[in-house]
Amino acid sequence: MTAIGILTLNWKIENNRSTSHEIISLIKCIQKHHGIRINFDWTPGHADVRGNEIADKLAKEAAKEANQIQKEAHITVTKQDIKTAARILVNKKWQHRWDNSDTGRFYYNFHQTVSNKSTFNYPDHKTAKIIRNLRSGYYLKNYQNKINQNIDPKCECGQLETVEHYLLFCENYEEARQKLIHEIYFNTGSLHIDLELLLSIEKNDNVSVSNETLMRLLGDFICESRRMNSSFEGLILLLGEGDFSFSVAMVKFLSKQYRKLMVSTSFETEESIQKHKTALENIDLLKEHGVTVYLATDATKVHTDPRFKNVKFDRIIFNFPHSGGKSNHKKNRKLLSDFFCSAENIITDEGQILMTLCKGQGGTPADKPMRAWHDSWQVVSMAANAGLILKHVWPFVVNDFEEYSSTGFRSQDKGFNTERAITHVFQKGEIIPLPTESISLALIKSEYLNRRIVRNLFKEDNHPVSQVYKHLESNIAEHFSIELIPAPAPVLEEVPGSLKELLVVINGEMPNSKYFENFELRFYRTEKCSEFDGKQTFEVSAVTIYDFQNIDGQGKLSNENSCQSKGEITYKQQEGEVTECQAGVYAVQKMSGCHLRFSLLEHLPFLFNKIADSNHETAGNVNEINDELENLHCDQFSDSDRQIKDKLPLLYLMTGQVFRPCEINPFTCPVKSEMLGVFSFKSGEICKSEDISSSFKKITSCLDASFPGLKISYDALENFDTDLPGLNEIGSIQVDFDCPSEIRDRTIGHLWFYKKHSNKNMVNCLVFVLDLNLLTLAAFRLPHVELLFSNNLDFSKQCTIRGDNSFEYSPVSLFPVMFDHDMSFWENEKKDFDEYTFFDVIRGVAKDSVMSVKLIDTYVCDITGRKSRCYRLQFQSHDKVLSYDTSWKLQSKIRLEVARELEITLR
Length: 907
Fold this sequence. Notes:
One of its GO terms (molecular function) is rRNA (uridine-N3-)-methyltransferase activity. Residues 1-64 form the RNase H type-1 domain. InterPro entries: BMT5-like, Fdx_antiC-bd, Fdx_antiC-bd_sf, RNaseH-like_sf, RNaseH_domain, RNaseH_sf. Pfam families: BMT5-like. By secondary structure, the protein is an alpha+beta fold. The chain has six domains: 2-82, no CATH class; 125-225, no CATH class; 231-429, Rossmann fold (3-Layer(aba) Sandwich); 460-490 and 597-805, 2-Layer Sandwich (BirA Bifunctional Protein, domain 2); 491-596, no CATH class; 819-906, Ferrodoxin-fold anticodon-binding domain (Alpha-Beta Plaits, 2-Layer Sandwich), CATH 3.30.70.380. Helices cover 33% and strands 18% of the residues. The strands form seven sheets. A seven-stranded mixed sheet has the order 3-2-1-4-5-7-6. The longest helix is centred in the N-terminal third of the chain and has 22 residues, at 79-100. It is globular, with a radius of gyration of 38 Å. Mean pLDDT is 74; it is low at 8-15, 201-209, 504-509, 529-539, 549-592 and 615-642.
């Protein structure tokens, strides 16, 4: 009775070993003291089976007396019973969450039952890891992009790198894929492969190819494509190994030929390495695989090590560096800086340096949580000292390296925490040059502008501005018949008085236009080579900023004394491609009143005359379309073609560069690409506000269709006078994108209604201007507008437009460091301080390395009345290498040039 009671009480416990021992002890006790023989018989049911009915009755009686029986038998719940019960409960909850989760559904197709143990006996750890990673897509870029959006989700072929794309479609692995198909055909007689076949290893009982064969074939494909272990190819150098366990783990990822190209080193000597228990055993194992092992190797002096003379490595790996002893940020930063400066000398131009740091040590946003900058090792800044930029960040998954054991905590044979460790991947980058001599103000300005004036970004193949321009033009072409008007050379013969005349509508006063509120009315006056024909390049020299208000109605400077040349005027005229070395210096010319184009609106008089003289005078009304085609044979067109042809009003488009002096922030640049559109209404008819509004909406709909991912808003005037002659603004276009709160202007376009009497009739036009640079910045979410002028060959490749009209940018350099430097000075008492000239001097010295310049304080001395200014200059580069030392030297040069050119007194 007692034994049956025990069985009743413990039937839910999975492990009944202790219970069965107690039952046996009780049975022996009964037999010994009472002479009763007990037999247990198993029968498969209760009904009509006398033995089972008795057993059932006894079990119920035992259950009623459970408490008393437990006391008499002294039954205790063991620790193993508790663990087993807890495991069962955890697995049930785990299974419930896995069945009802919204994430991991792709992996769920292959693993629907949770388990602490593998449900299949994989032949080796490497194969098991590869299969698991393929099912989750872990190593592939689309998966990593979900963890870190700075990682490019696209494959090298330009498509999203998903598991399906990698295994079935990527053209880069077609040769390896054909071998896989051939082997599967040899085993199954079928040429068909899909993810169900390749990844459902545990469920392929109905397939005439064994699981082991599938895994072998899949492993061969991965080895052939070399995608999952692409970071471990070529000549590899490992530095700072402790017990060499990481090197042993890496050997499994390498083929025999690459094992012989691997060099593993340690700072320890033959005597000190023995403090690591498994070090000698691991060294012997590495040598058996052909790996070269060196001891007593200083990672900060590898470039002077004779063993590495004339050797260039493809990968240099330094895991968990440490200066030794207790944590000291200053010493560890120096260790990193010295290592990078040394390693940079022995790595190939396209090689990579992989450095793995513990959680938070790197000081980048990839660390979760991210430490304060001063409380980190500042790995990006230390690498910049050696001309290296951060290209990728990968989570260090210690489970991928089964043999690896962390060791060396405080220089002892102790482990350390590798959870949330980050691997930082660095490559060589372009170093920002430092000015070597003083340059006159005129040459400073001309050098900065010349580098940009020779580049028409919207004409450069695959440039982001060109992509946006073509993308927008194709969408506009669906609603309008486009006539492209080539923009003249950006240097115009006269100062922009004609533009001012165009804008004067009432009593000689400037109209209320946001287009001119957002920009100071200043322009660049310069010289121009008279032989410039639009096919050659030229240099702009003696650029001087003039105030727009000093121009009279005839386009002449009202104060000629303010027109002063800032040095000799020379021009270089070059044919063909632009090269800095070609000669051809022309004679000095006198100031002729030329200027750099302030706006494409300066060409409006030319466009209006073209419209007035055009044969398409009636081509414009959006709401009233002619039903007949003229001078065309109707049988050549289908009804749909004729309908489309009829409904396309004419739109003139002109695109070109414009030049405006401006402040320095991430969203402004003196040189920009502008698109001018002119839409003509029917001549000779009264243009109603409803017609203008309809055309306004048609133009804005093109923007909405082109950039569905942008939050574009339109500020349109509800009531405007269509009877006023001249250019009257009727609306503006804003885009919502991330920018500092102090930068209020997010305007990318403006619209005007223009009315003018010509010799033939009245011309009514809708005019719009779009800032293509700012539109590109918003579409691709670029961090700095100066990136558009980058000479980095990778930049354009990092910007792509997908088929769903989404725009993607992958940073050239991850997490670039920003350095702040303050500059204080006393103004010159004898002349007004020109802030725009101040900005131009900064651009001339530092080029695009200054992200922003902010006035943070002003002070007026009570005694002398002198005024002091304090500016904060923020240095940052998104495509080049910028170290703190370089930023400090640039700041020092800027101070000297500002003091000399603006005649201020430094503080």
